[in-house]
UniProtKB/TrEMBL annotation:
Keywords: DNA-binding, Membrane, Transcription, Transcription regulation, Transmembrane, Transmembrane helix. Gene3D superfamilies: Homeodomain-like. The chain crosses the membrane at residues 6-26, 38-58, 64-87, 99-115, 127-145, 157-174, 186-204. The keyword Transcription applies. It holds the Pfam family HTH_18. InterPro entries: Homeodomain-like_sf (IPR009057), HTH_AraC (IPR018060), HTH_AraC-typ_CS (IPR018062), Tscrpt_reg_AraC-type_HTH (IPR020449). It comes from Flagellimonas pacifica. Residues 232-333 form the HTH araC/xylS-type domain. PROSITE patterns: HTH_ARAC_FAMILY_1, HTH_ARAC_FAMILY_2. GO terms for molecular function: DNA-binding transcription factor activity; sequence-specific DNA binding. It comes from the Bacteria. This is Transcriptional regulator, AraC family.
Length: 333
């Protein structure tokens, strides 16, 4: 069992991280700014809601303070849906009628002094309606994800799906709280904290999760797949990877396509950068040569150069990274 002090530390750190990420997203000037704004709103709403649970667990709050915390869900829910719409269409913007989705939050805010906090009506109002409100937007968001699965890149789809899974799990925790399962009351904030840490790692680790790198590109998912197929055909037919001076610009000139689009096609279809993609072909060539009887007595350096590597050190490092063994061990094995 977690001690009271440890629960407070974990939950508080998660809340601080959530608040930091919200502010970071609000001030981020690059990439899809609409998407950043709505994601920031979603995280801020969750942070307010979870913060209320943490405070109320340790310090009894006034009715109006509890209600302010609960109101966070009412603007987090539509923000989650709008985030998906902005993520899938970077040119999207809110119309006048879209702001109607925030009316429940505004009404709740004005009615805070009058919203009861005792008895069965409290459970219906503060949890039943609010939990149902979040469920409604989760359904809309999952539907939006399904509708766009063949349009946007795999990385964006996976990212939004993971956010929806996390939001859905938080919703389940509050369903438990609705039915008066006390253990869910504080486990929700703990789970939220873990979710925020995972989110922070993925979002800030831009080399692995780089949603907005190609935000200005007009290359859609289908065109990206077709271009990637052309790149593979070029590599297989002309074996251009055997040139140790091969660059992205070389491929760009051969295919008469912008180098940025080639990089995007490779990144979106196999989640590799250009040089990792090239080295994959070179290592496969090296594996073939290491098994070739005509190269049985050839030095490792010869294998490296004939596979397209410019030096033996780079070859050894790349080969071991890919296969888990050195070229010499591979040959013996």
């Amino acid at each position: 069992m977690l001690t009271t002090g440890l629960i407070l530390i974990l939950a508080s750190l998660g809340l601080a991280q959530g608040l930091f990420l919200s502010l970071y997203l609000f001030t981020l000037k690059t990439g899809n700014r609409n998407a950043h704004f709505f994601l920031g709103l979603f995280l801020l709403g969750l942070t307010i809601r979870v913060g209320k649970s943490v405070l109320n667990y340790y310090v009894p709050l006034e009715n109006w303070q509890n209600n302010i915390g609960i109101s966070g869900i009412l603007f987090a829910s539509p923000s989650l849906w709008f985030y998906g719409k902005a993520l899938f269409d970077k040119n999207s913007s809110l119309s006048g009628k879209d702001y109607l989705h925030y009316i429940p939050f505004i009404l709740f805010l004005f009615l805070i002094p009058f919203v009861p906090r005792k008895g069965s009506f409290e459970s219906l109002w503060n949890y039943g309606i609010v939990v149902f409100h979040l469920l409604s937007y989760l359904i809309l968001s999952w539907s939006n994800l399904r509708k766009n699965k063949n349009i946007v890149s795999k990385s964006i789809m996976a990212w939004y799906r993971n956010i929806l899974i996390g939001a859905s799990l938080i919703w389940l925790h509050y369903v438990g709280n609705l039915f008066d399962f006390e253990m869910y009351y504080i486990r929700g904030p703990i789970f939220y904290s873990l979710l925020i840490y995972a989110f922070s790692y993925l979002f800030l680790n831009r080399h692995k999760f780089n949603l907005q790198k190609y935000s200005s590109s007009n290359l859609d998912k289908e065109s990206s797949a077709k271009l990637f197929q052309r790149v593979k055909e070029l590599f297989n037919s002309e074996e251009i990877y055997l040139d140790d001076n091969l660059t992205l610009n070389t491929v760009s000139e051969k295919l008469n396509v912008k180098s940025r689009e080639i990089s995007q096609a490779i990144n979106e279809n196999v989640q590799q950068n250009f040089y990792d993609f090239v080295n994959q072909y070179r290592i496969e060539k090296a594996q073939f040569l290491l098994r070739d009887c005509h190269y049985k007595k050839a030095k490792i350096a010869t294998i490296a150069y004939d596979s397209g590597f410019g030096n033996v050190t780079s070859f050894n490092l790349a080969f071991k990274k890919k296969t888990g063994v050195t070229p010499s061990a591979f040959r013996k094995g």
